[in-house]
Each structure stands twice: as C-alpha cells, then as structure tokens.
TrEMBL record:
The chain crosses the membrane at residues 12-36, 89-112, 124-146, 172-197, 209-225, 231-252. This is Sec-independent protein translocase protein TatC. Belongs to the TatC family. GO terms for biological process: intracellular protein transmembrane transport; protein transport by the Tat complex.
Amino acid sequence: MSFLDHLEELRWLLVRSTIAILIGACVAFAFSGFIFDEIIFAPKDGNFITYRIFCELATKYDLDKSFCIKELPFEIQSRSMDGQFSTDIWTSITAGFILAFPFILWEFWKFISPALYAKERKGAAMFIFTTSILFFIGVLFGHYLITPLSLNFLGNYKISDMVKNDIDLDSYLSLVKTTAISCGLVFEMPIIMYFLSKMGLISASFLRTYRRYAYVIILIIAAIVTPPDVVSQMIVTIPLVILYEGSIFIAARMDKKRAKLAKEEANV
C-alpha cells in the first residue's frame, strides 16, 4: 500500500478502537456505583483484602503492623460543581479502555501483520491472549497491591499535626487510575522486549549487564511504597524481578534465532 493508504488504515484503526472504548465506557457507566464503591474506593477501607493479608502476616511474624487499621486517616472531597459527574465520565472511559484492550490489540495486530512473515502472523491469537493476560494481571497487581501500599504510605505521612488531610477527589482517582494503568503497561515488559530484541535494538547481554541497576531501582520502588519490613518489600519486588528475568530469557531466545539465521545466510 502507499503511504496515504497506510494512513487511512491507521485512521480506521483509531476509529474502531475509539468506538470499542466508548462501548466499554457505556457498560462501565451503567455499573458505576459498583465500580466506585467496590473497586475504586475499596482501598480506603481498612477492611480491604490487601490490608487484612498484610495485617495477618505482620501479626504472625511480628512485623510492622501499620496495615492493621480500621480506616485511612483522610477524607475524600469534591470541590467543584461538576466534579462528581466529570469523575464518573472519565472513570468510565478509563474502564472502557481496560475492557477494550484485547480488541485494541487485535486492531493493532491487523495493522502490522502485513509486514510480518506468514509464520509470524499465525501467532496472532497467542500474541493477543498473552499480551491481554499480562495487562490484566498488571492492572490487578497495581490495584490490589501498589495502590493500597501507596495510599497507606501517603495517607499516613505527616509533616505536622497541624495539617489535616482532606484529599481532593481528582487527586485520589489520579493515583488509583494511574497506578493501575501504569502497572498494566509495565507488565507488558516481556512483550516489549520481544519486539525490541527482534528488531535488534536490545540483547540479552545488555539486560544482563544492567541487571544490578535494574534490581536496585526495583528495590528502591518497593522500599518507598511498602512498610519498613522485608516481607512487604519482597511481595512487591518478586513479580517485578520475574518480569525482568523473563525479558532476559525472551531476549536470549531471540538472540539465538538471529545468530542461527545469520549463520544459515552466511552458508548460502
């Protein structure tokens, strides 16, 4: 196809993806009460499953008991006339994006598939399934682990007893949504590494060389968002380390395939 034809295909990809997001947003809007009460505002409740698990672990192993709480020490408020309505709309759109993510992947795959070999195009179903599963696991990881840890840390952080925490609704939702989406994208690391390695932009040796720096960054992140005990930090650290090691494994396989292909071409 010509350049303009590619642009036309891209335009329709964006149109169809937008429609899918809007359909998902309508479904989410219809269940907005459940989404806000049982999902978004659930981490503010001291009875949230993450707090209960951490509290049980802390009690059992005599660790920091900062998660044995009844309620986080802050209130959520809306300070604009259309604040709650706008929040409902934009939250529904975010939920629509999460729901429509597999369809968006399918559209993206159809767009790039003409540039792939026939053997690679056969892996469409596996690509979409694996990428979607990683994204949803990342979203759950962000919401059920990173978000409550962050809320507990930030909600209890004080510069002075003179300051009372009345958190704006937009600020609270920004943390919840950004954390979930960001973790969903971070969990796509193995897929991203696969394509970067396939294009020759990154190698397993590069990832191994900078492994120690990656581990330090992961440990710093875990130390910031968790209480000062080893168990909590390891719960956050282990999944991220597994993702990084998985990326090295994928890059190593791609390196071997490139080396084998280069050897075959040299023999010819």
